[in-house]
Amino acid sequence: MADRVRLRQEAHRLDPVVLMGQSGVTDALLLEMERALRAHGLIKVRASGVETAAARSALANTLTQRLSAAFVQQIGKILVLYRPR
Questions:
Q1: Once rounded to an integer, what is the mean pLDDT over residues 48-53?
Q2: Is 68 helix (H, G, I), strand (E, B) or coil?
Q3: DSSP 52
Q4: Which of 6, 50, 61, 77 has the most other CB atoms within 10 Å of its CB?
């Protein structure tokens, strides 16, 4: 619990490093997210192409499984993911 609070605090100052558009989850998007997670550990993803909260929640589940990352939080269209370096 304390780790999640700390990660949320750290994520507050971050800008999104990956912007997801209408194409959805592509191999190129996953590769870019993989690079960002390796480099930073904690990233924000802007899911502009996903309109509903339920769809963004499903997207977060998909991304965490495919990238072996942990979901930290969702604020609007911004998803925060974490994977220790």
A1: 86
A2: coil
A3: S
A4: 50
